[in-house]
Amino acid sequence: MSLRNPEPEGNPYGDLELTDPTAMRALSHPVRLAILSRLQRHGAATATELSEHVGASPSVTSWHLRHLARFGLVRDSAHGGDARKRYWEASARGFRFQFPDDEDGRVASQVLSRTMFAQHEDTPRRWMAEVEPRLEPEWRRAAGLSNTGVRLTPTELAAVNAAIEQVLAPYVTRDPADQPPGSRHVRIMRYVMPEADER
User: Fold this and answer.
1) pTM metric for this prediction
2) Domains observed in the chain
3) Which residues contact 124 (CB under 8 A, 6 or more apart)?
């Protein structure tokens, strides 16, 4: 099995947890990551609808969807409203994985990490050029970035990550019907990059 049930303490968002290196490799494709991201953000869609946003033809998109379904990352959806078309949905609002200790898992997680970094490397520049100029002043003031260096042990870093997730969890998992007026989608990108030992 490529996924395991989330543990509330270590996974407060209820993400799917990838543990199988084969599943990590399956997701390590820009089109598959784009498909999954689109479904998680915008809900159920057909391969044809998705193809317009992921840089692949409908038939190639359909093939990638079936591949993602093999690992439980996407599934058939009944929310499309047209029985003649096949609608797909993400199996969860997010996914997560760790760097396993075994060689196969370590390599697979590195490949997936690199693909995800590459997928988002241009996101801040595009936001600055395309989105930020159109934001209302209150949203512009609330946006921004930080670049903080701190000395931590691995245990302390894990605790910091867990604390951040606990703060975000009530907002991430909130039912759409409970979202207050004026709320909008916010991308929070968190890069956690320990430096190499200087000695």
Assistant:
1) 0.82
2) 3-121 (1.10.10.10), 137-199 (no CATH)
3) 145, 189
